[in-house]
Amino acid sequence: MTDLKSVVKSAVEVVSEAGAFITTESKSFNASSVQMKGFNDLVSYVDKTSELMITKGLSSIIRDSGFILEEKTSTVQSDSEWKWIVDPLDGTTNFVHGVPCYCISVGLMKAHEMMAGIVFELNLKEMFTAFKGGGTFKNGERVRVSDTPILSESLIATGFPYNNFGKTEQYMKIFDHCMRNTHGLRRLGSAAVDLAYVACGRFDAFYEYGLNAWDVSAGSILVSEAGGKVSDFKGTDDFVFGREILATNGKVHDEFNKVTAKSFGYS
Length: 267
Prior knowledge:
By secondary structure, the chain is an alpha+beta fold.
């Protein structure tokens, strides 16, 4: 039987080493080294080196584990029962422009179930960790979602689409509702950080579409283990690979889910 607590402890050491590398590189980073994977989709040697470091370190923690990697720097199996889902630098655009909000995100999935997650926000040096049944922690101390009871009293996080504009009209319906009916909206530029902040009660909810598994896998279990709720815009559990996510403190979930479902034509 896999000891998830020990797995997370070992993975934190790997993530910490990659985080130290990114922090060092941020002090002398030259934007001329940036490459374009696609429209508004940036990558640099920092992302790629971080991913290689993380992949190498995680490979020895669970035997024969597979990987789902954002930058695809390694040719590793992805059909294993246990899979690491890695974003080596979530918030690359922030990093490139010197905006202090970016992180490493590492999720661990068994079959189709999230088992553990780590989000390391590098600027505040906040290490968020969780494993199934074990709760959520920030730098070793237990955290929980907020107690905000209704959407009108909530602070909401979101992300703007940067190359997938096919559902902009539907997205803006949610945006408009939140502008008019909540304490406000924030866009930090890192979905993994947004989810970690829902988990520790800084945000009451987060929603976004067009995301990939490496953006949300780790953060989703942080939220659920902190007492929150995660779904797609329909209210089902297809949020890791379904490219829609709604994560809340649980108390405002049903109210907010009615907004997302209606805006996207699901109800």
